[in-house]
């Protein structure tokens, strides 16, 4: 399956470079380019790409607002969005994830990680740059919660606890499958069940819940029922 991508960046050189990198991948096709957030939202709604790759700092409507309009809470038919930026600022990370982004990368991430983030978003996963992930989860772990984390609507199974710990550790579906000796489709089923039980919109919210409830202090393989 070819992943159709829309790229938005106000700098022509960057926009062209990102499009060339992605277009060189055998399973990715760049179907449109936008120079600002307004054009990005309009193109996304007309072209319906599988994934949008948005720069944060763009004129008029920035990448975060464009993400909220296309993937935020209340959007009936959300589009997967990966946000990419030069600026390694926590407020950008938090704002992008709250807006509904499924990925957050820095522009120095490299072609391989960029392609991985696009594929992850197309598959329903969230890929955050590793250095950003560590800092993000540390910030949540160190912050005093304003309210107790919500309880699952149903108790988690032993296998779901294992998948939860691995998701919170930043592993992809493929890596979790290898770690737990199960299929990728089984991992996806468990992740979907976790999202339903926890009321989480994405893998990042699953990871945050794991940190808030102390699950990250447990080993993912404890009590492994293979």
List the helices and strands and how they pair.
Layout: E1 3-8, H1 12-23, E2 28-34, H2 37-47, E3 51-55, H3 63-71, E4 80-85, H4 90-98, E5 103-106, H5 111-122, E6 127-128, H6 130-142, H7 158-168, H8 173-180, H9 184-198, H10 203-212
Parallel strand pairs: 1-2, 1-3, 3-4, 4-5, 5-6
**Strand composition percent:** 5-15%
**What's the CATH architecture of the largest domain?**
3-Layer(aba) Sandwich
How are the strands of the largest sheet arranged? 2-1-3-4-5-6
For the residues shown, what is the average pLDDT? 84
Radius of gyration, in Å, reads 17 Å
Coarse structural class: alpha/beta
CATH topology of the largest domain: Rossmann fold
CATH class of the largest domain: Alpha Beta
Head-to-tail CA distance between termini: 32 Å
Query: Which geometry do the CA atoms define?
Result: globular
Helix content: 40-55%
Run of helices and strands: EHEHEHEHEHEHHHHH
Largest sheet: 6 strands, parallel
Low-confidence stretches: 217-226
Q: What's the tally of helices?
A: 10
What is the tally of beta strands?
6
CATH superfamily of the largest domain: Response regulator
Give the number of domains. 2
InterPro entries: CheY-like_superfamily, NreC/VraR/RcsB-like_REC, Sig_transdc_resp-reg_C-effctor, Sig_transdc_resp-reg_receiver, Tscrpt_reg_LuxR_C, WalR-like
Keywords: DNA-binding, Phosphoprotein, Transcription, Transcription regulation
Protein name: Response regulator transcription factor
Pfam families: GerE, Response_reg
Molecular structure report:
This protein is 49% helix and 13% strand. The protein has 10 helices and 6 strands, in the order βαβαβαβαβαβααααα. β1, α1 (12-23) and β2 form a beta-alpha-beta unit. Mean pLDDT is 84; it is low at 217-226.
């Amino acid at each position: 399956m070819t992943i159709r991508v829309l790229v938005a960046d106000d700098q022509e050189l960057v926009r062209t470079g990102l499009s060339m990198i992605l277009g060189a991948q055998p399973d990715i096709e760049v179907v449109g380019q936008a120079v600002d957030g307004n054009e990005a939202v309009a193109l996304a709604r007309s072209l319906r790409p599988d994934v949008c790759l948005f720069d944060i700092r763009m004129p008029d409507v920035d990448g975060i607002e464009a993400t909220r309009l296309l993937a935020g809470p209340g959007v009936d038919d959300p589009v997967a969005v990966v946000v990419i930026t030069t600026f390694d600022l926590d407020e950008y990370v938090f704002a992008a994830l709250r807006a509904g982004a499924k990925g957050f990368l820095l522009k120095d991430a490299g072609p391989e990680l960029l392609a991985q983030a696009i594929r992850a978003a197309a598959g329903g996963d969230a890929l955050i740059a590793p250095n950003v992930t560590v800092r993000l989860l540390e910030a949540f772990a160190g912050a005093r919660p304003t309210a107790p984390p919500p309880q699952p609507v149903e108790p988690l199974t032993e296998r779901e606890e294992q998948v939860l710990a691995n998701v919170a550790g930043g592993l992809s579906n493929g890596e979790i499958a290898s770690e737990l000796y199960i299929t990728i489709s089984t991992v996806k089923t468990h992740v979907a069940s976790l999202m339903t039980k926890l009321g989480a919109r994405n893998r990042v919210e699953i990871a945050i819940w794991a940190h808030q409830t102390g699950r990250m202090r447990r080993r993912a393989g404890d009590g492994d029922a293979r």
